[in-house]
Amino acid sequence: MAKILIAGGGIGGLAAALSVADRGHRVTVLERQATFAELGAGIQLGPNAFHALDRLGVGEAVRDRAVFIDELRFMDGTTGERVASMPLTGAYRGRFGNPYAVVHRGDLYQPLLDACRASGDIELLGGRAVTRYEQGPAGVTAVTDAGERFTGAALVGADGIRSAVRRQLVGDGGPRISGHTIYRSVIPMEKVPEELRWNTVTLWAGPKWHFVHYPIGGGRFLNLAATRDDGAREEVTGEPVDRSHVLGEFPGLSDTARDLLELGEEWRTWVLCDRDPVDRWTDGRVALLGDAAHPMLQYAAQGACMALEDAVVIGRLLDWDEDAIPQRLEKYNAERRERAARTQLVARELGTRLYHPAGAEARARNEMLSSLTVDDLHDRVAWLHGARDFSRALSLSAGASR
Q: Which residues in the chain land under pLDDT 50?
């Protein structure tokens, strides 16, 4: 039994803690915030996420909090035309072995946190921001901003897109600012007209903008997320923004979509960031996981799913002697990097080629999507949603992956 350190107590960090502890190791999670909590709004979970959650022992707890979606719906945001829809029941669940669901981020995080707290092998320490690491042949030491030192057989950097562990391991500077600004609001479902309470993830695509909405919180709330390709060049994280500003950012929005956007209140805004894929996530006894390894834009709805997959794989590969940990972490890197990198790049592509075109390009997109059968659509997402071993990047076309 080894002692494994994890920097970061978010979704990826807690998932990794459960996975590693299940292999008989003791785990210490070092979280920069004083309390363990997950902020944010809605999040989408594909079947691959539920396969991972089941292996982590929290699948049923997340299902109890989730909303199981009937379809993904792609709309022309200016004309109001339904361009394409991908059913997520019946054949989809049969093929991929699990549902597609949406949850509040807290409804994913809390079952992970509860399971960690119930484990006798996981120690959760808040108020410990890891700033660097030191390592030798037999171990690694995580050093916090207060100068505390924690030593173990391995360190997993799950400390997010601005990871201090990545800064030392990769040294690639700050995140890449995408130039896209997102506005988010969560409203009580009782404020939504009954005829608009769709059990779908609906995306309205327009020229340099798109608008997504879906139910969360067991159907008690509607999650609204509206994105503008506005060339933003400075990072913004969760700042309040006036409702009038949000409404003015989406000209030409069709009537139904406009009605839904106008329901939003207490809007907050972020400028979206990601990073370029890198080949190396490991340095001896140190490895990156989740957003620290492969931060991606939201457009493939796979960021949390990829972190959960990472957690399952790293736990499986750390079922080994302490002396072999560096080699096992290299194997984790080799098994995960291609799939994660492809997902990062597909997420970027969706934001340009599929969600934000105008004019003739938008019409061509609509013609392409509307020509696809249900089987075609399922084929397009199979490499993502259908994964169960999380170690292969399949060579299927990703053109309309969602």
A: 393-402
Q: Cα separation of 85 and 302, whole Å?
A: 19
Q: Which residues, in sequence order, are CB contacts of 395 under 8 Å at separation 6+?
A: 383
pLDDT given for residue 392 in this prediction: 56
Return the beta strands (E) in 106-171 as ranges: 122-125, 130-136, 139-144, 149-152, 154-157
Q: What is the pTM of this model?
A: 0.95
Q: Is the dihedral of CA 312, 317, 320, 322 positive or negative?
A: negative
pLDDT at 319: 85
DSSP state of 399: T
Torsion over CA of 295, 299, 300 and 302, rounded to 10 degrees? 50
One DSSP character per residue, 277-321 reads --S--EETTEEE-GGGT----GGGS-HHHHHHHHHHHHHHHT-S-
At 196, give phi and psi (nearest 5°): -110, 10
Give the residue ranges of DSSP H helices in 140-232: 164-169
Give the length of the chain. Answer: 402
Strand partners, 215: 222
All residues at 6 or more sequence positions from 248 whose CB lies less than 8 Å from its CB, including other chains? none
Decide if 206 contacts 246 (C-beta within 8 A): no
Residue 24 is given by DSSP the state: T
Report the Cα 325 to chain-centroid distance in Å: 27
Residue 399's pLDDT is what?
33
